[in-house]
Every structure is written in structure tokens, then in C-alpha cells.
């Protein structure tokens, strides 16, 4: 059976959060039809013009279609959700104001209209919406606007053939800024007073669309692209075709914004625009291949931003933001393969994680390096042209890449896509009777336990000035050397998704040529320390070798690692944390570019948490906070919180309440979660209960609070009191589990048994996988404490 089109007419009662609907569904194929439809009030159903009987259990409408071509008509009414952030829901702002917005991925279009809510059932959609005068309606296509009695009628043009989860509808007092200088026109829509902050996103979007059109060899398909800032939004952004939705802090930025904020906006906009081709134009057949959508968009977004803003060195950002989190989660026994079979809705939502995004993108980067960039591009372009307006699988992509490159990719991709985890390569120089030989052995890298899995590894290494490549297909690789090498580094520029440990660490350190390679040694040896495979002395050797390495990437990585060590045990690691951060900070006291300012911000923010003397000195800038550079505000606010404590709470709270943008609110919340007195952190978290902290922001707030070693017990007490409300907000998504997976590891230090027993007794099914991940990382970090 195939759906040809949906004709949808809706009449909204905006004030009372409800709507009446009429829907006409055109179908090919006869037999039993099952429409997904959650909690509708159904008034009448007709098949081919005749009223028909139907079955409805609150989730599925069962109808019998008697012809080869059928028209199903449904009259219904529906309430707009005011508790959750999926389906069609109320998104609040400014206390009593709101917009109505939608979020359908993965299976929530059924909360909006009766439909066959599967990605393979692509269809054309035509929507008409009646609303009160003064309200604006946004959807995937342009609209003709006319009067309809006392209301306004928005008649949207029909969409291209697309999946149900890509449909969008937004209603509210939207303010817009538009660029129609070329096709497509690009429009940013916000709540009132914020649209001017959207001009930077328009600039990014214009450059990114041009880049993708050239790279893919396919023009953007729709006449316009809306970029919509939704005031309450569960996810970071959503790729609805022609009407992309964002959290405000993923879309809005200007010259006063921090470097990190501008990079985030650029990357998220580029990510969602990549989906307009990879995901919207060509869509996965089923959610098993979700990673195809997300991995590819993640990979391409960094490529696009690196092209349009080369000064931001996006492949460095990629390592910290995508590769590193993915390698942490993929080193756990609770991980899953990139391509994982899913059957029900709960399993689908669990797949939106660091494996589907970060690992998949990192594997694509590895394959691009192996095939050569131009062959990779040709394969991608061929794939998109072949399957446009249709559905495809991972195998279809491998076939296109193999044809373009002449390389057989099946075995390589099966090794990385269908197996969980990744290898640790042990590199040795062995002296024999006739000289030396290079020996490489692979074993699966796990933070806890052992496994015999092996992988087909695209091996790259630099030996005495020469770059060499090889395919490691067995557990070991050996080659003869004429003499002991004066240079040897494996995994050049960290293109491979694997870790490396060296018998001769000094040789590896002196062989580093680029910031990406310095980052590689730091990151690998930090996680070797966490896994117990090396001792603290060995890790410190790498740390001190690169503490004065002049690279924002390296300094940012050091800041992250020191933040973790300090959070685990301030007494044990405080001295080394302060020493290394002070060394790193000296590199950036006179920053020359934006990335150097960001490095200063990250290092200084971490140092302020660990060094009260430093915090006291920097906090003196708080009097001029509103006039500070965007990159300086975060460390100054944290320093103020650490050094002033009780006096700081009211000052920071007042600034938080006056702040208009999410970027600034989150910055101030970060500071307010840095207090060393637990009750002040509890007061800050209490703003969630009053609604002053948005429902969407608990995703960031809880992990940030858990990293404060002085407030763990206070945060734990607060979480137990509020866990059911958080679960309810994110019901129907995998976000609740991800919040717990990111919160438990540091929150649980010193309370391991108590926290484990609590979650065992509570049996929270919806967050079960996230809880297991969090507890496994906690067990590893506890070894360091």
C-alpha cells in the first residue's frame, strides 16, 4: 500500500490550545489500512465518499479500503500538548506567552494528524490552517493568505514527496528577518524582539547552501528555507524540510556573542541544512539506518563550516565535540553498533546518541581519508541523485562509494558499522637479530573488561618523514625497519577511529607535528588512565609535554581533562590541575584571534573552579560585566560565584532574570552552578521548578551541576525530588536517558552504592539504557578517586 498525498485542513483555537481538523488521504492499494493516530477525538470517517465503520484504540485507526485507489476522509479534533515537547505542543516564553510548534521525529506526526507514520511512506502534503487575526503560521512551503470570516486562512503550497516526520507547523506572534537576494529565500523567525540576532544565521545558511549545491551537484529543492527559533524545544534542532526548527541558542548570535556560540550556530545550521539533501531528499528506509542521516549531517556540517569559515578550524572542533564523546560511549559494554536493529518506538528514540552522530561521522571521516576526498564526494553525489525523493539503505551508500572509488568497501564498513566498539593499537619497536621491526597489535578498547573483537583498520602512520598506509586486517601487523626510527606516529591527524598506546612514548611525543596529533596523544592517554591501562605518572608525562603547546585545540582539551580530574577529587588532583592550567593560560593572555579568546575562556573557567585565588582576581571584572567581550564573560561570572558566594547569588540571579537571550541565561546559570555551598546550587536548580529555567535546558543544567564536586549531595537530593517531572517532560524521547547518562558519572563519585541501589529499586524503564551507561562510566571514574 502507498500513500499518494495528504490534504489537511485545520481550524485552530489558539487560546484554548485545540483544533478541529479535516483530512483527506489518497491511497493506492486495497485491504486493511492502519493509521497511526494518538489521542484524537474522531467524529466521522469516510472511504470513497461513504461513511464507514472503523476501529480505534487511541493509538491506531483500522479501516478497510476496498478499491485499488482509495480516498479516506477523517473529521477530528485534538488538543495541543502543554506538558511535553513532542508532537504538537505549547512552547512558552515571557511567562504567559507562547507559540504552538511541532516536533515529529521519530514517531510523533501521529500526535498531529492520522497518518502512516513510517519514513518509507513518503507522500505529498497540502495544508490549510485557519487562525485568529494577528497570528502568523509557518510550515514547510510558502503560503497564500486570505480572510475566512473573522479568521485568517493560510493555504500552503503542496510539498515535495517526503516522510511524515519532516512535516512542520508553527503558530504564534513570530517576528521575521528575510534575505531574498537569491534562491532560495532564507527567513529567520523568532519570538518578538530577537530577529536581529538571526542575521548571522542567514549569512551562514546562504554560504552553506551554496557549498552543498556545489558539493552534491544538486540544487536545493524548495523555494524558501525557514530557520525558526522555538522558545521551548527538546532537541537542538530539527531538519523539517524548508522549515528547520532550533533552540534559540542554536540559531541566534551576533558580534557580541562568544566564539563558542558563533561556532555552535554555524555548525547546527550547517548540520540541519545537510539534512535537506541527506535525510529529506533521500531518506532512510527504516530507523535502523538513522545513523546515515545523523552521521552524514554531522560530518558534512564540519566540512561546510570549515570551508566557509576556515579560521575556525572545524576539524579541530570535530575531535572535541564529536569524536571524543563517541569514543567514550563506545568504550563501554553498554554500547551498540552504529547500525542497530530497532523495532519499537522506545528503541528508535534510544538511537539518537553519540554513536549514531559522533562515531558514525568519525567513521565517515576515516573512510574519506582512505578513499581520497574526491572519490568520496563523487560517491555521495551519485547516491543522492540515484535515490532522490525516495528511500535508501546503508548498503546503497556503500555501493555508490565503491563504484566511485574502485574500492570494495563491504568488509571494511561491516567491521565498523555492524560491530560495537573500536580497537586500541599497541605500537612497539622490537630489536631482532637482523635489526628492528615495527609491531602493531589490536585489541578492543574497553573502560571495563576485555573482548576478543578485531576490526579492519585503515592504518596511517608517519615513519621517518614518510606517510604510509596499510589495511590492518588481522590482530597484528609487522614490518622490518633498517634502524630504530627517529620519527614514528600512528593515526596521522587522528583520522582513524581508534586509540594508540606506545611502548616508546618519548618517540611518539617528539613525532607530533600538528595540533590534531597533540590532541590525539592527550585524549588517548587520558582515557588509558581512566581505563586503568596506564598509571598517573605516564599520563602526567603526556600532559606536561603539551601544557605549553600553543594550540587552542590542545588547551581546550586540557581544560576538559582537568575539569574532570578536579571534579573526581579536588584534593588528589588539585595541584596538578592548577599547575597545568596556569601554564596553559599564559599562552592566551594576549589573544590574537577568536579561537584564542575561546581557549582563554575555557581554561580560565576551569581554573576559576580549582583556584580561589585566581577566581578572586578575575572576579574584579564583574563590575564591568555587561561591557565585557563575549568570550570573557563566562570565566568572570564563574570567578565571581566562586569568590563571592552569598553576595554573588543575588547579583547573578538579577542578571539572569533580566537577560533576554538563552546564550546569556545559560552562561549565568553555569556560574550559579559553580558555588561551593550546596544550598546555593539547590536554590539555582530551584529556578527549574518555578519555570525560570526552561524545560529544555535541564539537559545542560544537570550535567553541569553534577561536575561541581562541592555540591554533589545537594544536587543528588534535588534530582531525587524532581526526577519524575524531568521524566514526564521528555517522555516519548530518548533525552531523559541521555540526561542521566551524562549526569550520573560525576554526580555519583563517593556515592556509588547509594546511587546504584536507588536506580535499581526505582526501575525507570524509559531511561534504563542511559542509567546503565552512567553507572558504567562512574565505575571507571571511581578508580581515579
UniProtKB/TrEMBL annotation:
Main enzyme class: hydrolase
Domain (Peptidase M1 membrane alanine aminopeptidase) ranges: 200-416
GO CC annotation: cytoplasm; extracellular space; membrane
Aminopeptidase N-like N-terminal domain span: 4-166
Binding residues for Zn(2+): 271, 275, 294
Signal sequence coordinates: none
Name used for this protein in its record: Aminopeptidase
Species assigned in the record: Sulfuracidifex tepidarius
Amino acid at each position: 500500500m502507498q500513500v499518494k498525498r495528504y490534504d489537511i485542513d485545520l481550524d485552530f483555537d489558539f487560546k484554548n490550545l485545540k483544533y478541529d481538523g479535516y483530512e483527506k488521504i489518497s491511497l493506492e492499494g486495497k485491504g486493511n489500512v492502519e493509521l497511526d493516530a494518538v489521542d484524537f477525538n474522531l467524529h466521522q470517517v469516510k472511504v470513497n465518499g461513504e461513511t464507514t465503520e472503523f476501529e480505534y484504540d487511541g493509538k491506531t485507526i483500522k479501516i478497510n479500503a476496498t478499491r485499488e485507489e482509495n480516498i479516506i476522509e477523517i473529521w477530528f479534533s485534538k488538543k495541543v500538548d502543554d506538558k511535553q515537547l513532542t508532537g504538537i505542543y505549547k512552547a512558552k516564553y515571557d511567562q504567559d506567552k507562547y507559540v504552538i510548534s511541532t516536533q515529529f521525529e521519530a514517531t510523533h506526526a501521529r500526535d498531529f494528524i492520522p497518518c502512516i507514520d513510517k519514513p518509507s511512506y513518503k507522500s505529498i502534503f497540502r495544508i490549510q490552517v485557519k487562525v485568529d487575526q494577528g497570528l502568523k503560521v509557518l510550515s514547510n512551503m510558502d503560503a497564500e493568505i486570505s480572510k475566512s470570516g473573522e479568521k485568517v486562512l493560510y493555504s500552503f503550497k503542496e510539498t515535495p514527496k517526503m516522510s511524515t516526520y519532516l512535516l512542520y507547523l508553527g503558530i504564534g506572534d513570530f517576528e521575521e528577518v528575510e534575505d531574498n537576494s537569491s534562491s532560495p529565500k532564507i527567513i529567520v523567525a523568532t519570538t518578538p524582539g530577537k530577529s536581529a540576532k538571526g542575521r548571522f544565521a542567514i549569512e551562514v545558511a546562504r554560504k552553506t547552501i551554496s557549498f552543498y549545491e556545489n558539493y552534491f551537484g544538486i540544487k536545493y529543492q524548495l523555494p524558501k528555507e525557514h530557520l525558526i527559533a522555538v522558545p521551548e524545544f527538546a532537541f537542538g534542532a530539527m531538519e523539517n524540510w524548508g522549515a528547520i526548527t532550533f533552540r534559540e541558542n542554536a540559531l541566534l548570535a551576533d558580534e557580541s556573542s562568544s566564539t563558542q556560540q558563533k561556532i555552535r550556530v554555524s555548525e547546527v545550521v550547517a548540520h540541519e541544512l545537510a539534512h535537506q539533501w541527506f535525510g529529506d531528499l533521500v531518506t532512510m528506509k527504516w530507523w535502523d539506518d538513522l545513523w546515515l542521516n545523523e552521521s552524514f549531517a554531522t560530518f558534512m556540517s564540519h566540512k561546510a563550516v570549515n570551508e566557509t569559515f576556515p579560521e575556525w578550524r572545524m576539524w579541530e572542533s570535530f575531535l572535541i565535540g564529536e569524536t571524543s564523546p563517541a569514543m567514550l560511549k563506545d568504550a563501554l559494554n553498554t554500547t551498540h553498533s552504529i547500525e542497530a536493529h530497532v523495532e519499537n518506538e522506545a528503541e528508535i528514540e534510544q538511537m539518537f546518541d553519540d554513536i549514531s552522530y559522533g562515531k558514525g561521522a568519525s567513521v565517515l571521516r576515516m573512510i574519506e581519508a582512505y578513499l581520497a576526498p574526491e572519490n568520496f564526494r563523487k560517491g555521495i553525489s551519485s547516491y543522492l541523485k540515484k535515490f532522490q525523493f525516495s528511500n535508501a539503505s546503508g548498503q546503497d551508500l556503500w555501493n555508490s562509494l565503491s563504484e566511485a572509488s574502485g574500492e570494495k568497501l563491504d568488509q571494511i564498513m561491516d567491521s565498523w558499522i555492524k560491530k560495537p566498539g573500536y580497537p586500541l593499537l599497541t605500537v612497539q619497536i622490537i630489536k631482532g637479530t637482523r635489526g628492528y621491526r615495527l609491531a602493531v597489535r589490536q585489541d578492543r578498547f574497553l573502560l571495563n573488561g576485555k573482548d576478543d573483537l578485531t576490526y579492519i583498520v585503515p592504518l596511517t602512520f608517519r615513519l621517518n618523514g614518510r606517510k604510509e598506509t596499510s589495511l590492518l586486517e588481522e590482530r597484528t601487523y609487522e614490518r622490518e625497519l633498517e634502524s630504530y626510527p627517529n620519527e614514528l606516529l600512528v593515526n596521522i591527524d587522528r583520522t582513524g577511529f581508534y586509540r594508540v598506546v606506545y611502548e616508546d612514548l618519548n618517540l611518539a611525543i617528539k613525532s607530533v607535528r600538528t595540533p590534531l596529533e597533540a590532541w590525539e596523544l592527550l585524549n588517548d592517554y587520558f582515557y588509558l588512565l581512566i581505563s586503568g591501562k596506564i598509571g598517573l605518572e605516564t599520563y602526567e608525562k603526556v600532559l606536561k609535554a603539551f601544557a605549553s603547546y600553543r594550540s587552542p585545540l590542545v588547551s581546550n582539551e586540557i581544560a576538559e581533562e582537568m575539569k574532570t580530574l578536579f571534579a573526581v577529587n579536588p584534593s588528589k588532583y588539585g595541584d596538578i590541575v592548577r599547575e597545568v592550567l596556569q601554564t596553559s593560560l599564559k599562552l592566551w593572555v594576549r589573544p590574537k584571534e577568536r579561537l584564542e579568546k575561546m581557549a582563554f575562556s575555557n581554561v580560565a573557567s576551569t581554573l576559576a573552579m580549582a583556584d580561589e585565588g585566581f577566581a578572586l582576581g578575575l572576579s574584579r571584572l564583574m563590575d564591568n560585566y555587561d561591557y565585557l567581550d563575549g568570550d570573557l564573560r563566562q570565566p568572570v561570572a564563574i570567578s565571581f560565584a566562586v569568590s563571592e558566594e552569598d553576595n554573588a547569588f543575588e547579583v547573578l540571579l538579577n542578571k539572569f532574570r533580566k537577560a533576554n537571550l538563552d546564550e546569556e541565561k545559560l552562561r549565568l546559570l553555569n556560574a550559579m552552578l559553580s558555588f561551593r555551598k550546596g544550598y546555593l546550587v539547590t536554590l539555582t536548580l530551584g529556578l527549574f521548578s518555578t519555570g525560570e529555567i526552561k524545560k529544555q535546558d535541564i539537559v545542560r543544567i544537570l550535567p553541569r551541576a553534577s561536575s561541581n564536586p562541592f555540591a554533589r549531595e545537594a544536587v543528588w537530593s534535588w534530582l531525587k525530588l524532581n526526577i519524575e517531572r524531568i521524566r514526564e517532560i521528555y517522555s516519548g524521547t530518548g533525552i531523559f536517558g541521555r540526561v542521566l547518562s551524562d549526569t550520573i558519572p560525576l554526580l555519583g563519585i563517593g556515592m556509588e552504592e547509594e546511587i546504584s541501589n536507588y536506580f535499581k529499586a526505582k526501575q525507570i524503564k524509559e531511561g534504563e539504557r542511559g542509567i546503565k551507561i552512567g553507572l558504567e562510566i562512574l565505575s571507571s571514574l571511581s578508580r581515579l578517586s
